[in-house]
Amino acid sequence: MAAKFYKEQRDKQILSIDFLPCPNTVIVGRGKKVAQHAGNVRFQELVKKELTEYSAVATTKADKSNIIQRVLTEVRLKSPHAFVKQDLTTLRWYRVEENAQRITTAQAFRDALKDKYKSSRVFKKLRREKEKKAVAVAMNSMPLARQVAALQNDRQPTLEDDTASNQTPRGLESKIHPTLEDNTASNQTPSGLESKIQMLSIDFLPCPNTVIVGRGKKVAQHPGNVRFQELIKKELTEYSAATTKADKSSIIQRVLTEVRLKSPHAFVKQDLTTLRWYCVEESVQRITIAQAFRDVLKDKYKSSRVFKKLRREEEKKAVAAAMSCSMEASKLK
To answer: What pTM was computed for the model?
Structure first.
């Protein structure tokens, strides 16, 4: 394990502690905030500039590789740190390796040519939407008893089900690290709360007692989040036995008070537009605590993340079964 850790540190080119991405630097990640970063906007313009040649002229892998190299060279001319990511363990920015830069550029071309490539993000999104529609059609054509049976799972949910989606693909473990921008959907500042959030100082970094609001393996491993989960488990028996909303609310308040006693900035998020940390408002803090209880009591709550994951798996199985039935019916005709 130690050898693997030091190899990871060598692979990453850690930047200075006060580094912030400049307008010409490309942030590697997904989400609206990342896409709106000035460096990412310029990167997309470079991709569109080479799009015609990449799509029509390039017929071999070598041709496409040359075009990708041209885009990389153009980005590097404008910024010494061309492609960067943030490691949530140390909260430090680092340069991604050459191979990851080329993969990012190739993926940008595939996304722009979404009608041509099945590996584009747009194509994958459309496929998921079609699967959901197929599920709805299949469920509507089934009797009520069969609908209930299709959504129930014989086995009990396990913690492995929830962590499986957070595992790094084999072969990239030592090079690719989940970052805050991977969860930008949960890090966006709601438009109605812009005037209410408390922006922290520009040099603020979450302390070991601060809870980072978000999802993913790196967020879960932050010391403040680990301690937060311990507080949840401590109050779990009483919360599970509580029968009224008022009882549960008082338990949530106890956890909230305990977190605030250890850290003046109890629950924080990072805005990727300004790269500034801010304190989330009290209602979001209470929602975060309630969700943590539901996730631990996954067998009891349909709103837990594990239950939702199981439901998606069952929907996919229902789609596969419906498509199989339709194919068999067409063969009989």
So the answer is: 0.38
